[in-house]
Amino acid sequence: MPAVSIDTFFACSLMVLLVLSAMSATARILQPLVNTMASHEAAQRFGEIAKHVLLHAGRPADWGQDGQTVPEEFGLADAVAESPYALDVDKVSRLNSENIYCLSYAQIFTSLRSPDLSFRIEIKPVFNVELNLTSVIQDSDETIYMFQAATKRDEGSPVSTSLKAFVLAENLLRAYTLQNTGGRVDFNITVPTSLESPALLVVFAKSTCNSRIVSYSVYPLTVQGGLFPRGAFLKLSPINHTLIVKPTSSGAVLTGAYALTFNGLWQLTQTGSNTFRIPEFTDASPTVLMVFGLDSTRHFAEWTVYPQIPIHAGVDFTSLRSASDVYAFEHLVSIGYGIYKCTIFIGGPKT
Amino acid sequence: MMGQNHGQIRVIEAFLAIFIIFSALTISANLVTKSVSPQTDNSLASIGMQALLQLDSDGSLAAYITAGNWSGLREALNLLLPTGVIFNLTIYDSQMRQINTETISNGGSKSQEITLVRYVCTSQSCEFCVYVIYLCLAVAK
Lengths: 351, 141
What we know:
Strand content of chain B: 15-25%
Helix content of chain A: 10-25%
Oligomer: heterodimer
Largest sheet of chain A: 5 strands, mixed
Number of helices of chain A: 3
Helix content of chain B: 40-55%
Number of strands of chain A: 20
Order of helices and strands of chain A: HEHHEEEEEEEEEEEEEEEEEEE
Distance between the termini of chain B: 63 Å
Strand content of chain A: 35-45%
Strand order of the largest sheet of chain A: 1-19-20-2-18
Largest sheet of chain B: 4 strands, antiparallel
Number of strands of chain B: 4
Shape of chain B: rod-shaped
Strand order of the largest sheet of chain B: 2-1-4-3
Structural class of chain A: alpha+beta
Order of helices and strands of chain B: HHHHEEEE
Structural class of chain B: alpha+beta
Radius of gyration of chain B: 26 Å
């Protein structure tokens, strides 16, 4: 075979190899770009769905106010709000599983009208109030509880706040005003040792830079008779400015119901056998609702908050991340006069 | 002899082609990794706009500006924006003259992906004022 033929064969083989390797390399390089474009389109679509949930009131527009109404179209926006991203206090409360009128996942899924996606809705304050009981000093007349209140964001950075702490029992109300510049403050509360009724410590916090950025925490104090888990005697469901009390214990008798906000305490007016009217407050803080009662010889206290936040409704994606693509959309929303953080997770088919 | 030279030229051509195509691939690979993510851009702009909207919904945004409370505005934005987002806010009047006398920012960013949110707000006091707000956002790296 002449040398020129060998050279030509060698060159042609090189060219063929080159073209094959170039095609393979191009495919490898372009694949992430193609995937990125596909995931970008999915993210854009899911982002629009998340926005739609927060900007659209749904159908009927007032579905939150009637516990029996299941929305045909899902939307959380307040129908009469003047600004965008303002959510309806009742629609939000109906996402909480503690509410007897809570929408099921299937009901939300159907009304969302997007059969190819799953979702999770989380609504919580912009920052958290953490109460730590540091010590208890008991004498014959009074018990002194020493607390440390920390106000911080999820990742731990401190938030400067103005705090109001209330200790409430059936025949006891004590209020404390606290200032917290470094995100941490120590305070003491005193409760009579002879107190028979359970007492609750409720702490409201407002950011010093903006009074609409609020948070709260409730701490049940151990008194005579011990502590009972929430819901042991009553299930409290606030809806349409009415507190609906459903006894979970047959012998529960109500002795008083109260509403507590940053600015003070109100006694609730009973409107039915197990319903109380919640006043319309102009306070940015959520309203903590407390009901005291007696079950045979045991005193009890149950509480809830209106709007019923924090909310964690929908699919828990932590175990499903490998099966579907999950996108998180963080929004700032207002509920009543307060500003909260809303994260909507949407999972679609894996690309 | 001529035929042998002709064969060598083809081999050289093949090596040249390899060099050109691989250099083209290397350059295009770098271009792909440097492309801006529109998703990050959109979500940053959205969260920035929402922070300004929430502050403006009760008139507190204009109140901060009217009172010259730059530290309060900085703290409020720092609290409302997600952790890891760097912002720089500049406020202009209707004549596009800068109003803020202090830098309203939570730190510098070396990121090349900066998102700009433009927002117009008005004061809710007796004196009508228009403020044009430029909010630059970047993800801390």
